[in-house]
Design a protein that fits this description.
Number of helices: 12
Mean pLDDT: 79
Low-confidence stretches: 110-176
Shape: globular
Structural class: alpha+beta
Length: 476
């Protein structure tokens, strides 16, 4: 079995494994979670899925590497061909100069036979050098104004006058040329760097405005994810935006078009989507007043939507109807104490922490009054929520108490919670990037995105918040 067949078999096996996992998970949906924790069966399914996807990624990386290697060899062959043509033209020029100096010195060269004569050894420079070295004067006796052995090989001591100029032979390439886009070239003096996302060392990386390095795959992956996850838009690292204009040359045309389309959508505050639930295509900004309303045609499902009430289009003289479902959600939000973002009007819920809210549209506001942050006199946190968050942090770090704790254990736990509460009071608005992070081994849930990480999390040195690498670099 050759390498391609082995990779195809391995790829098919991994794909079948993923399909089997989907069927198995469908059979246990709603039965396996106890207290919000993963069961052993789900944990094993997650591990099997990670291994299968890693196998598929490995096969894809090998194919890309082989393709890049073949492209590099084609570039080398093209460069050698161009160099050979330039050497041939230089040889023809010197031959013409020699004929103009002494027309009888050399016969006309046969057309298109110069390279073949060079390869066959006809008119080699070594015989001419030997004849000159045997001359008492050490000169070739030529009247030409140059005497390099690689120039013309006609000599009075030579028995033949049919010698031709031999162009320098191309030297064998000892290394393959690799084209590196300017945006991925490393700073002077650095041969390799490690990617801040995957940790791999690479000799081609983009340096973000904050100084972090991204390899090409991770940078592409960030912009791709930013088109489906608004919390990652605009793409940034350490709170500094990454310029799309700088790196668009290394993205695929499909991703460039997709990102530009999504950029227009995510930058729109009051958005209008197709009312067809199976389509929901972005149609541009919605009308701010009923006087400006109109019908917008969706070019994907060819249905029209009212630009003000965002339901099916109707006659302009007909008043817009109230969205009953939306009103029910708003009523539920008021009942549960939820708040809506003043900018994009998305509903948000505060679980723990202070009242400083940062919506996924990047708008910052007060959770109590919905005004822009620091433009109101509301308290900055709720004491009960602060204590609840402190208790969670202590249990996370020290573990839960036994069912029948001793008085000394209870006293120590109260002291730990009190100390954590005071830390949260001071660091409730922690500048995570200024405080810095350190790696903490072990599994756990990211406190920003909620994803479960198997191996490690990053913990803020200021507020003790634990997050994944993606959130630490691209969300916070």
């Amino acid at each position: 079995m050759d390498q391609d067949d082995y990779e195809a078999l391995l790829e098919l096996t991994a794909q079948c494994q993923l399909m089997d996992l989907e069927e198995l998970r469908a059979g246990i949906k709603g039965k396996s979670r106890v207290g919000g924790r993963l069961s052993d069966l789900e944990f094993s399914y997650n591990a099997m899925e990670a291994e299968a996807r890693a196998t598929l990624q490995y096969i894809q990386d090998r194919r890309i590497a082989r393709g890049a290697q073949g492209a590099s060899q084609e570039d080398v062959d093209l460069i050698n061909t161009i160099a050979e043509i330039e050497r041939q033209e230089q040889a023809d020029r010197q031959y013409a100069l020699a004929l103009s100096t002494d027309p009888d010195a050399l016969p006309p060269p046969p057309v298109a036979s110069l390279a073949s004569a060079s390869r066959s050894g006809f008119g080699s420079g070594s015989a001419d050098r030997n004849s000159r070295e045997e001359s008492p004067s050490g000169s070739s006796g030529s009247s030409w104004p140059w005497s390099t052995a690689e120039s013309f090989v006609s000599s009075p001591a030579s028995s033949s006058r049919s010698s031709l100029y031999e162009p320098p032979k191309p030297q064998a390439s000892t290394s393959k040329a690799t084209f590196i886009p300017s945006i991925l070239r490393l700073p002077h003096g650095r041969s390799s760097v490690d990617c801040v996302i995957c940790g791999d060392y690479t000799n081609q990386a983009y340096q973000a405005p904050c100084g972090c390095f991204y390899d090409r795959q991770c940078l592409t992956d960030l912009f791709d994810k930013a088109t489906v996850d608004e919390s990652l838009f605009p793409p940034r690292c350490c709170s500094q935006q990454i310029s799309f204009a700088q790196i668009r040359s290394i993205l695929s045309p499909q991703l460039v078009q997709k990102f530009e389309t999504k950029s227009e959508e995510f930058k729109t505050t009051n958005r209008l989507y197709c009312h067809n639930s199976t389509c929901s295509r972005f149609l541009g900004p919605a009308a701010s007043t009923e006087r400006e309303k109109g019908a917008r045609l969706c070019t994907q499902c060819w249905r029209t939507t009212c630009s003000f009430c965002k339901s099916a289009a109707h006659a302009s003289h007909v008043p817009c109807e109230t969205d009953t479902a939306a009103q029910q959600v708003l009523a539920l939000g008021r009942q549960e104490g939820w708040q809506s973002c003043p900018s994009c009007h998305h509903m948000v819920e505060l679980d723990t922490g202070c009242y400083h809210m940062t919506c996924r549209c990047r708008y910052e506001f007060c959770y109590l009054c919905a005004r822009r942050w620091k433009e109101c006199t509301c308290p900055q946190w709720d004491e009960n929520r602060l204590v609840a968050q402190a208790e969670r942090r202590v249990v996370r770090d020290l573990g839960a108490l036994p069912e029948a704790p001793r008085p000394a254990q209870l006293e120590a736990r109260r002291h730990d919670i009190f100390r954590m509460v005071e830390d949260l009071r001071v660091n409730h608005e922690c500048d995570h990037h200024l405080s810095g992070f350190f790696r903490r081994g072990g599994s756990g849930n990211c406190e920003s995105c909620g994803n479960w990480l198997r191996d490690f999390l990053l913990q803020c040195r200021g507020c003790s918040m634990r997050v994944c690498v993606r959130c630490r670099r691209n969300r916070l």
